Amino acid sequence: MSPFDTDIAHLLAGSMLLVSFLLLYQDRMFALLNVFALQACGLALSVAWQAYLQQAPQLFITAVIALGFKGIIIPVALHRIIVRLGIHRSIETVIGMGPTMLFGMALVGLSIMVMLPVTQAAGTFVREDLAFALSIVLLGLLMMVTRRNAVSQVIGFMSLENGLVLAATGARGMPLVVEISVAFSVLIAFIVIGIFLFRIRERFDTVDLHALELSGGEST
Amino acid sequence: MRLAEALVFASRNVSELSAAGVALLFALSAGATALARHFLITRSIYTACALACSALAALGMCALIAPPVPPVTVSLPIGLPFAHTLLGVDALSAVFLIIVNLTSAIVSAGAIGYGVHAREPQRVVPFYPAFIGAMNLVVIAQDAFSFLLGWELMSLTSWALVVSDDRSADNRRAGIVYLIMATGGALALLLAFGVLAGAHGGYSFAQMRAATALAPAAIVLILTLIGAGSKAGLVPLHAWLPLAHPAAPSHVSALMSGVMTKVAVYGFVRIVFDLAGPPRLWWSTPVLIAAGITALLGVLQALMEHDLKRLLAYHTVENIGIVFIGLGLALAFRAAAMPIAAALAFIAAIFHVFNHSLFKSLLFLGSGAILNASGERDMEHLGGLIHRMPVTAVAFLVGCIAISALPPFNGFVSEWLTFQAILLSPQLPEWFLRLLVPAVGATLACSAALAAACFVKAFGVTFLGRPRTPAALAARETDRFSQVAMLLFATLCLLAGVVPGFIMDALARTSQLLLGARLAPQATQPWLRIAPIEPTRGVYNGLLVFVMIALAAVATALIARRIAAHASRRVPAWDCGFPDPSPVAQYSATSFAQPIRRVFGTALFRVRERVSMPSPGDTTAAALEVELHDTVWETFYAPVIRAVGTLADRLTRLQFLTIRKYLMLVFATLILLLAVIGLSRS
Question: Do A117 and B667 touch (CB under 8 A)?
Answer without folding.
Answer: no
